[in-house]
Design goal:
single chain; about 70 residues; mainly alpha; 3 helices; 2 strands; about 55% helix
Length: about 70
């Protein structure tokens, strides 16, 4: 997610939290590890791509479910 723009995410329970690219990378990495992956840098790069898609979507407070459609 380039730049300093802050983005929020609506959690499944309705809470709104600040988007954290590190959490997205960790989730991608954990999924990759489950199938034998071990490249955290690639997970971080993919998380950045998710952040870019979110930013381009114009959705001011996407849901966690929307994140899954980006990844």
């Amino acid at each position: 997610l380039g730049g300093e723009q802050k983005m929020n995410i609506r959690k499944r329970d309705g809470r709104i939290v600040t988007f954290n690219i590190e959490k997205i990378a960790q989730a991608i990495f954990k999924a990759a590890q489950a199938v034998g992956g071990n490249d955290y840098e690639e997970a971080l790069e993919l998380a950045g791509m998710v952040g870019d898609v979110l930013q381009q979507s114009g959705n001011t407070t996407p849901t966690v479910g929307f994140l899954f459609t980006c990844s």
